[in-house]
Amino acid sequence: MPLQFHRAVEDMEIWSASSDHYSFVISFQSPTGPGFRGRLGYVASWRPLHQGRGAIRVLGSPLQSFAEAEDACNTMLNYLKGDTDSSSQ
């Protein structure tokens, strides 16, 4: 089942989802303007839910669209669960 992202912070472009003991976050960053600063795009990250560890950026971030970031998170979740067969999506 694909991750179901929901808006995590009302005044910022931050979405979160969790599944199978992993937490995923997508945030929008830009070199200027409100919110996170950095290269323009959507940054996807993940971490184990109950281990108190820092987040790990999903390879390819920042991405050009929210849909690309969402797909990257779902691909990472499948990898973490041990299902590296991308044709099953």
Structural Rg: 13 Å
Number of strands: 6
Shape: globular
* pLDDT < 50 stretches: 84-89
Mean pLDDT: 87
Order of helices and strands: EEEEEEH
What proportion strand? 25-35%
Oligomer: single chain
Show the helix and strand layout:
Blueprint: E1 6-9, E2 14-19, E3 22-30, E4 36-37, E5 41-48, E6 56-57, H1 66-80
Task: Characterize the structure shown.
The chain is of the alpha+beta class. It has one domain. It is built from one helix and six strands; from the N terminus they run ββββββα. The longest helix is centred in the last third of the chain and has 15 residues. The chain is globular, with a radius of gyration of 13 Å. The C terminus is likely disordered.
In brief:
The chain is an alpha+beta fold and 89 residues long. It has one domain (6-82).
Any descriptors?
alpha+beta; disordered C terminus; 1 helix; 89 residues; six-stranded mixed beta sheet
